[in-house]
Specification:
Transcription Regulator spoIIAA, five-stranded mixed sheet
């Protein structure tokens, strides 16, 4: 039986219960429907052998019809395909979505332990990579200090503006509102014991020691880690980093050092602004809710708040800055060649940076508590 068309032919014969289909000519979108129907009808009757030796041209639509026919019905054997046709068929097979397994094997205790082990190993590998990027930053920074001509001052100033100056409004507003909330909630609880005046100590210790720098670092992690990943990842997608290497420009010196240094310089300053805004917000709410005048608030703040409360918060700032910068730069260098990878790595960078900041803050809290500071 022969079906003819202007540019293609489909010849069907049967022998020993096997249907032999021979394709001749050029198969494109015009021949998709006849080819698809012929393959479905033949596979419904039993095994099929498809001969592509007479095909002069095979496009993606015809390859899709053949590959989808392979996945349904009786066995389909493809023979006589040229190298180009075989490559196209393999590409289409790889691109087709894989159906989810309906009968998944229940996970045993060994499988769960194996999953935990793999997750731990993956986390250790990720931590090692971050440590490696930190080492790269230190090495390039040392080289820039030895060779000042290689240091990019313009890029540093630009990133200081992006990281620090443009973050001042959101950091100040956030800290001001946190101070207001602390004063209001603290006054509500302390009023029950007639100890309203201690709300000043509560605000001072909470803001200066923990909340000021921690919330600032979380905001900066959300803004800056994503910005670093997006910028470096976009350059990687456009192969600009490869072009930099071709021109003899070290990407680590040009991209990592200015960004991480800008964070090191600006995060402590943002922390101080957050502390000041938090204290102002707390003082304002204390005045409104408890009648503690600004003068009384300032006097009690100076008399009962040691300098170490401020120092504890500021000591954390460089560590927060380093981890945020390293995570952002590392995630940017892991971006692939598509936009989906860029979005995924940007999201991962924000989550990782915030998680790392909270973990470091917890470690410092335990450390300072143990040393009695």
């Amino acid at each position: 039986m022969t079906e003819e068309a202007p540019t293609y032919q489909i010849e069907t014969t049967s022998q020993d219960g096997i249907t032999h289909i021979a394709l001749r000519g050029s198969f494109s979108l015009a021949g998709l429907t006849p080819l698809h129907h012929r393959l479905d009808a033949a596979l419904a009757q039993g095994p099929v052998t498809l001969d592509l030796s007479g095909v002069t041209r095979l496009d993606t639509s015809a390859a899709w019809a053949i590959v989808t026919a392979e996945a349904h019905g009786a066995p389909l054997t493809v023979t006589g395909s040229s190298e180009d046709a075989a490559t196209l068929l393999a590409t289409v097979r790889k691109a087709l979505p894989k159906p989810d397994s309906q009968n998944q094997k229940p996970k045993t205790l060994v499988d769960r332990i194996e999953g935990i082990g793999r997750a731990v190993a993956k986390s250790a590998s990720f931590a090692t990579e971050l440590l490696g990027y930190f080492g790269i930053f230190l090495h390039r920074l040392a080289r820039s200090l030895r060779h000042p001509g290689e240091f990019r001052m313009t890029a540093l100033v630009h990133h200081c503006q992006e990281v620090g100056l443009k973050a001042v409004p959101i950091v100040a507003l956030m800290s001001f509102l946190i101070g207001v909330v602390l004063a209001f909630q603290g006054s509500t609880q302390l009023r029950q014991f007639g100890a309203e005046v201690f709300v000043v100590d509560l605000i001072a210790v909470s803001v200066l020691r923990e909340l000021g720098i921690l919330l600032t670092a979380i905001i900066v992690a959300g803004r800056t880690a994503s910005a670093f990943t997006a910028a470096i990842g976009s350059m990687k997608m456009r192969e600009e980093i490869d072009a930099m290497r071709t021109l003899g420009i070290d990407p680590a010196t040009a991209l990592f050092v200015p960004r991480i240094l800008a964070l090191l310089f600006m995060l402590p300053i943002l922390g101080l602004i957050a502390n000041l805004s938090g204290l102002i917000g707390g003082a304002l709410m204390s005045w409104i809710d408890l009648g503690i005048s600004p003068g009384m608030f300032r006097t009690r703040l100076i008399e009962n708040t040691g300098i170490w409360h401020l120092a504890v918060g500021m000591i954390k700032a460089p560590f927060f800055a380093l981890i945020i910068g390293v995570v952002g730069c590392h995630a940017g260098m892991q971006v692939g060649s598509n936009a989906e990878s860029l979005g995924q790595k940007t999201s991962d960078a924000v989550v990782t940076a915030i998680f790392a900041v909270i973990v470091i803050d917890a470690v410092f809290s335990v450390f300072f508590a143990q040393v009695g500071v």
